[in-house]
Amino acid sequence: MFRPQLPEAPHLPTSTITAQHQVQAPMPSAGRPLTPYMGAVAAVVVVGIVLTALLAAVAVTAVSVAVAAVVLRSLVSSANRR
Question: pTM score, two decimals?
Fold first, then answer.
């Protein structure tokens, strides 16, 4: 009365089971291909590099002009004292 009853296992047919292999088609791309954008990306990178180089050149020029101005000012002020 209090013993658990297990359900009977379903009987599988005894004939040979053949496995069917399905060939999956390649998944379609989610959006447009990235190939047309490669030119735009390259252009943005090149413009960024050129602008960075120009900014560095301006900074170096500004520092050198400032150093030259300090040296000239020192030379002029020491010449006036003599």
Answer: 0.49
